[in-house]
Amino acid sequence: MIYITQLIYITDGKEDVFNLFEDIAIPTILKYNGRLILRIRPDESSIIERNIEKPYEIHLVEFDTQQDFDNFKKDEERKNFLHLKEQSIKASILIQGVKL
To answer: N or C: at which end does the chain have fewer Cβ atoms within 10 angstroms?
Structure first.
């Protein structure tokens, strides 16, 4: 099992475009033995301490194998909508790990 944590930073005013992309990307995770196990939109009151910009969203996803994650990234339907991701996300930080 692998875990992906992603901090997502949105371009101002592009929230609707981001949500269109997510409407496609999130269901695609299931096709590749993945599960979105947590999706958070933090606000200032939920942050105890930070030394980076507050992300728009934080996602925690698990995949059964690295190959499943790689196949998700190569999904042709998802690729057709990457322009929405590129239009709406100014930056993201992806952290990959395993359960200890």
So the answer is: C
